[in-house]
User: Fold this.
Amino acid sequence: MNHLLRSHAPISERGWELIDDEARDRLTPGMASRRLVDFSGPHGWDYACVTLGRTDPADVALAGVTAVRRRVQPVVEFKVPFALSRAELLAGDRGAEDVDFADLDRAARQFVEAENAAVFHGSPAAGIEGIVPPCPHDPVARPAEGAGYPRAVAQAVDLLKRNGLEGPYGLALTQASEPLTTEGGFDPNWATQRAWKVTSSTRLNAHGAPTAYKLAPSGAFPAMLDPSSPVFERAQVIGHTLWVTPFHPEERWPCGEFVNQSAYDEGLAVWTQAQRSIEDTDVVLWYVFGIHHVPRVEDWPVMPVDVVSFRLTPAGFFDRNPALDVAPQAGHGAGHCS
Assistant:
């Protein structure tokens, strides 16, 4: 059934393709509720209700006859009108790639906001209970500062998944941030792709997030020495992949100044026992990296090469990709960039 009466509209097939593509691009990413609840569809215009599997008694006043009335959840239709310029659609027919779909985009935002609100918070007028009102769990507190939102979202998503609310995709990923406030040694978690950021407490980028640099680990391994061994006792720095301390001009040698002549570590393992604050101060990151070299046949008699590294990269330090202002080279990308 063609409720849009497309054949009567002064719009070409190309125009309808452009409209469909734009609507799909705007609607699909915003339909968050469909990713975390059981969803099926579309089922067509004849689909009027969802059975709830329960019944209520119905008095039919007929001797020897009993009846029950099945409970159903009626389907609710959302409609948001929008207007498009015929001149813009004709421009699209001619190959224009910047067709003005502003009003369609506005309608798509209203639609997804209405659907998400109804699914999550319910709509008494539409007979929709929603997820939040009957939820038996305490709400996750909304942070006062923007920097706390990733952690709150992670807690909420974890609560949903632990209670079986996973949606048809079976996957809900988030990034959790755990502030480090005091000095110490820290380790990676390859299962969660843990990394570390040094963030500013006073500067925000254009997107409202703290400016930061990110240390992504690589070539990190746990120490395989017994903690009571002489080697480990004089070089306890290898017990953690990352150490963070407040800057101190006299703290330069991570295991102490004379490692080979010492019996016990006099560096990071001792300094960090003070549990000094690393907030709102200059910090030093001590990264421990290396490999366990298990020789190959190809390593003898001359070992070719092995690579050990880590990455220290800007993470929100800039407002955009700094390469975007690189001047184009003549003869490259002609016809694609202007």
Summary: The mean pLDDT is 86. Residues 102-121 form the longest helix (20 residues). The first strand starts at residue 49 and ends at 58.
